[in-house]
Hints:
40% of the residues lie in helices and 20% in strands. It is of the alpha+beta class. The strands form two sheets. The chain has a five-stranded mixed β-sheet with strand order 2-4-5-7-6. It has two domains: 1-62; 68-215, 2-Layer Sandwich (Heat Shock Protein 90). The chain starts with 11 loop residues before the first helix and ends with a strand. A hairpin with a 2-residue loop joins strand 4 and strand 5. The chain contains five helices and seven strands. Bound molecules: adenosine-5'-triphosphate and magnesium ion.
Amino acid sequence: MSDPGAREGGDLTLQGLVHDLNNVFETISEAAELLAGDDRWREVAEALARSVDCGRRIVGVYADQSRAGTDLGEIVDRAETFLRDFLRHLAGTKIRVHRHIDRDHRLPGNGSDWERVFMNLLLNAAQAMKDRGGGTIEVNSRIEDGSLVVEVADDGPGIDEAILPRIFTARFSTRSRHAGLGLHIVRTLVEGNGATASAANRPAGAGAVFTIRAPLPEE
Ligand SMILES: Nc1ncnc2c1ncn2[C@@H]1O[C@H](COP(=O)(O)OP(=O)(O)OP(=O)(O)O)[C@@H](O)[C@H]1O
Ligand SMILES: [Mg+2]
């Protein structure tokens, strides 16, 4: 079997992947445009188009690498839009997202990485609360000791203290048919952007809280 990594020009593998994914996105976009022409499928078509936009940002086509960082509110908006599309298929789960984010709070580094981080955290929170029919996710940010601190808290069952030290490990999952990769991706991306991620339970079994601490982006 040939090893794709052995091809001349090491990052051809990555370029090839981005190229092939863009073709996949193109196909889905075209199908979505066709669907949008029929009123019955318009909402589905819009959800598909948003997912494609999200995918394109993730492969870096629109990656925001600016040193000034990325607006936290915008990132949470995009993650919440993704969550809403996902929830269409979890009938009966009602999720509210409350946020207390200052308008000038910014995250350092790559915007598409942060979008994935918050998508994974919101998705996990919604999945944790689905057996209760839903609940509230709080996204709060504050500046503390020269860092931006962002908390994502839910009012689901919380995380068993016995597994708390393992949840960021790749392939650790308590959910059937899940890969156990979401939080591993969160930690890898967060650390890749110079920040830290940790998990805890809210007092009195009131749910889980994930905390991100990021250095403030350069002015
Ligand atoms: N908000 C939460 N509330 C309670 N438990 C959580 C929460 N988020 C994560 N967990 C626990 O941490 C485990 C690991 O989460 P992670 O996102 O890495 O994997 P997963 O959600 O099980 O699978 P995948 O993300 O690959 O679909 C989950 O299986 C669950 O037990
Ligand atoms: Mg997950």
